[in-house]
Amino acid sequence: MGDAYTPGLFVAGDTKIVKTRRLPLSGNVLVEVGMQVASGDLVAKTDLPGRVHLSNLANRLGVIPQELAAALTVEIGATVNKGEVVAKRKSFFGLFTSTVDSPIDGTLESVSNVTGQAVFREAPRPVQIDAYIDGTISSVIENEGVVVEAQGALIQGIFGLGPERVATMQVVSKNLGDTLTDQDFKSEHKGKIVVGSGLLTLAGARRAMELEVAGVVCGGFAYQDVRELLGYDVGVAVTGTEKIPTTLVLTEGFGDIPMASSTFTLMKKLDGKKASINGATQIRAGVIRPEVVVPLKEPVAPDEDEVGASGFAVGARVRCIRAPHFGKVGAVSALPVELATMPSETKVRVVTVTIDGGQEVTVPRANVEVIEK
After folding, report:
1. Do residues 352 and 358 touch, judged by C-beta distance below 8 A?
2. Domain match, 69 and 207 both
3. Do 248 and 160 belong together in one domain?
4. Is residue 1 included in any domain, yes or no?
5. Domain that residue 269 falls in
6. % of the chain surpassing 90 pLDDT
7. 231 & 272 share domain
8. In the structure, what pLDDT confidence band is assigned to residue 312 with cuts at 50, 70 and 90?
9. Which of 207, 301, 348, 351 has its CA 20 to 30 A from that of 184?
C-alpha cells in the first residue's frame, strides 16, 4: 500500500509565483527591483570561508611558542602554496635546519605565541544564487538575496529527490496511469524533464539517470526503491541535496498511484515549455514540497471539468490520503454538519466525496486533501 504526506498540495495553471532567493550568509546582491531576469541569471553571490587546517609549528620545529615569530618565513595573512616553507629553524651552530611546510593552498591566518598552533585556511568557496525562474525582481533583501515573482503554472508534489534544475518538459505518457519504464527513456530526453502519468519503475529511474535526464515527474514510486536508487535510506530531514543527475518529483506518493487527472491534463498543456524543477522535500514542521514551476506569458486555459470550488467546499476537488480510498480523486458532494461515529468508535467530522467514476464515499475530513487551483 502507498503512503502520502502533507495535505493541501497546490496545482494551478495560472497563479502568482513568488520565490525568495537567499544567500546562506551576507554577500552582494547583483540585481535591482524591477529588473527582468531569466532562470539562470545570477542575482546574488558571496564567499564561504575556506576549511581550516591546524599545525603545531612549535612542536614540529622544536622551539617554544614565543620563538615562532622569528622562525616564520612568511607573514601572517600571506597567501601560501601547499609544500611551501612557512617556518625554519637552524640548530647546532647552523649545521642542521628544520622546516615546516604549508599543508594546503591558502592563507596562513594566525600563529599563537601561547600554544604554538598555526591556523591555515583554504581559499574561500564562491556561492552564487540564480533566479531559478524567469520573472521580475519584486524586492531586494539587503546583502542577502531577492524575491522573484512571475505568473504561470505551479505543480507541487508529495515527495522528491535532487536539486533545482531548469529544462524543457516533455510528456511521454499517452494515457492516465501509464507506467514509466526504462523503455520510455530515449537518448533525446537527455537534459529534459520527462513527465509520466503513473508509476516510475526502478529500472526507469536508473535509465533516466544513465541518460542524464534533467528531471522526472510521475505519479508514484516504490518506497523501497528509494534506497535501491540512492544506496541509503532517506530520513525525515530535507531532501534535495542528493548527488544524482536526475531530479525526481512524485505528485501523488509512494506506490503504484496514477497522477491526478487534472494534474496530468495540465502537464500535457505545458508540454514543450521551459520549467524549473526542485526535489527538495520536508515532511515535518516547516513543510517544504517538491515542485514544478512554469512561468508563462499567457496562462493555459482550464478545461470545464477542471473549474471547481476553491477551498474546502462542495464542488472542491480533493484527494483521499488514507486507506481504503488512498490516492483516489474526486469532488466534495456534501459536508455533513453532525459528527459521525467511525469503526474505532471515535466521533469525527466527515465529508462525502464523489470519486471520479461515480462512487460516493464518506470519509473523515482529515483523510482528504484539497487540490488547490
Report:
1. no
2. no
3. yes
4. no
5. 11-24+150-295
6. 66
7. yes
8. low
9. 301
CB atoms within 10 A of CB 86: 22
3-state secondary structure of 32: coil
Return d(Cα 36, Cα 108) in angstroms, integer. 43
| Residue 372 per-residue DSSP state | B
Residue 17, strand partner residues? 150
**How many structural domains comprise the chain?**
3
Give, for 210, the enclosing helix (H) or strand (E).
helix 202-210
| 52 bridge partner residues | 121
Give me the numbers of helices (H) and strands (E) for the chain, helices first please. Answer: 5, 28
Q: How confident is the model at residue 8 (pLDDT cuts 50, 70, 90)?
A: low
Residue 5, domain member (yes or no):
no
What is the rounded distance in angstroms from the CA atom of residue 125 to the CA atom of residue 50?
Answer: 6
Q: Is 208 exposed, middle or buried (0-12, 13-18, 19+ CB in 10 A)?
A: buried
Q: Tell me: the pLDDT tens digits for 48-77?
A: 999 999 999 999 998 999 999 999 999 999
Q: Are residues 113 and 253 in the same domain?
A: no
**Amino acid identity, position 175:** N
CATH of the domain at 74: 2.40.50
Residue 341 lies in a domain: yes
Residues 188 and 213 in one domain: yes
Q: Which positions ≥6 away from 101 have C-beta within 8 Å?
A: 82, 83, 84, 85, 86
Same domain, 160 and 233: yes
Task: Report helix angle 202-210 to 223-230, nearest 10.
Answer: 30
Q: Which residue has the higher pLDDT, 90 or 81?
A: 81
Q: In Å, how far are 153, 203, 327 from 1, measured between CA atoms? A: 31, 20, 10
Predicted local distance difference test score (pLDDT) of residue 94? 59
Closest CA to 305 of 356, 363, 370, 358: 356
The 10 Å Cβ neighbour count of residue 326 is 18
Is 198:256 a contact under the CB 8 Å cutoff?
Answer: yes
- Please name the amino acid found at residue 101: D
- Whichever domain contains 335, its CATH number is 2.30.30.30
Query: Nine-digit cell at 249?
Result: 518529483
- Same domain for 225 and 93? no
Residues 163 and 275 both lie in one domain:
yes
Q: Quick check: is 248 in a domain?
A: yes
